[in-house]
Amino acid sequence: MDNEEDASCYMVEEKAFEYDYDEEFDWENMTLAQCNCSHPLHKFLEVCVSKCVVAPNTLLFGLTEEELFEAALPALMYLIVFLVGTVGNAMVIFVVNRFKRMRNVTNVFLASLSTADLCLIWFCVPIMFVKYMSHTWFMGRFACYSVHYIQQFTCFCSVLTMTMISFERYLAIAYPMRNMWLSSIGRAKKVILLIWLVSAILAIPTAIRIDYETNISLSGHRVH
């Protein structure tokens, strides 16, 4: 079982790299702002270091009262994205499946697009919100690999689906009499199934590039 207390989840090109750290920088007493992955320090390191020694005066997610107040706006934005995305995409799927007159080729593609968006919203948004608020990763190896894989998977699904919607509309306008191959719901569903399969394959390299570390040293020349 992994030690999840000091774990971090990130995507890097290499597992280790040289870093000439500042001798005067107090690595063992980093502030909460410096522990945040959005801090410029982590952009320079190209890796989110999450093993930090912080002040004990902390509240929710290890944040002080002032930092918790500053995090209120991002938390509100995450909540709005989650609620609006869930309601909007769920309504599209419901309408297309509930009302037969709404089941045309374009709307079937839109329902597939909404399904991919829901996968992203329900799985990735809450996890990334917790990561943003806690400045660390404590959800384990499986979630580390899964959240990045699903992000890429749904991205490919969305892009390919929108491409097919544009292509189908082009054929319907430019060649209305030659659009019979994609004019049925059955053919559209087969294309959607192919899109999801191709997207699942294209997202595999993302999982390979993910590094999950349980012990990160901040006091040496190398970060592993």
From TrEMBL:
GO cellular component, one term: plasma membrane
Superkingdom of origin organism: Eukaryota
TM ranges: 75-96, 108-129, 149-171, 191-210
Molecular function as annotated in GO: G protein-coupled receptor activity
One Pfam family recorded for the sequence: 7tm_1
Keywords: G-protein coupled receptor, Membrane, Receptor, Transducer, Transmembrane, Transmembrane helix
Main location class: membrane
Membrane topology reported for the UniProt record: Multi-pass membrane protein
PROSITE patterns: G_PROTEIN_RECEP_F1_1 (PS00237), G_PROTEIN_RECEP_F1_2 (PS50262)
Cell location: Membrane
Domain G-protein coupled receptors family 1 profile: 88-224
Family statement: Belongs to the G-protein coupled receptor 1 family.
Protein name per Swiss-Prot or TrEMBL: G-protein coupled receptors family 1 profile domain-containing protein
Origin species: Strongylus vulgaris
